[in-house]
Amino acid sequence: MAQPQQERSRTTRRRLVEAAVECLAEHGWSGTTVAVIAERAGVSRGAAQHHFPTREDLVVAAVVQVGEAQIEQLRGQVRKLPSGASRTEYVARMLLDLYTGPMFRAALHLWVAASTDATLLATLGPLEARVGREAHRVALELLGVDESEPGVRETVQATLDLARGLGLANLLSDDTRRRRRIARQWARMLEQALPVPGGNRSGVAFVSKTS
Questions:
Q1: Which of 13, 48, 55, 161 could share a disulfide with 38, CB 3.0–4.6 Å?
Q2: Residues 74-84: tens digit of each pLDDT
């Protein structure tokens, strides 16, 4: 039975976006053309340009895909969160693993390209800022803290910045074992710095006001 036109169109768009992420991760910005993406997706260049007239249009969709996938990756593990003191280390590991894998590699190529391409930066900057805000909000929710408390916002942001740095270290070789050791130590520091469940010295758990 043939797919309805609308469903075929959605399928083609999804394949193009997924192919764009894969091509960016493998070939970087300069090597990721509409023709290369279309070939990876198994569609004609004309079909690709029907859905995404320019490479920048495809990149915007890819950035949104990468950001949403990262957030869903976090949200998908919420049900697995343990209670008590072990929760903090589990969350720390989740956050420090956030910027690893092909999707982060694709995003990194775009960041580097945007640093010298004003047009790409104008498109990419606002999208990255939105993704960053959402990642921050989800981190607050996972840790169960209120960023109106002194130092909480900065500590959570430092955690995400650390995660990006560890993501860079993981690009050249598998850094999993070292990242696990760092996550354990960082969790201890979070328990001292934040009023988190299991590590809360005052016995009060805070909930993010943004949730």
A1: 48
A2: 777 777 777 66
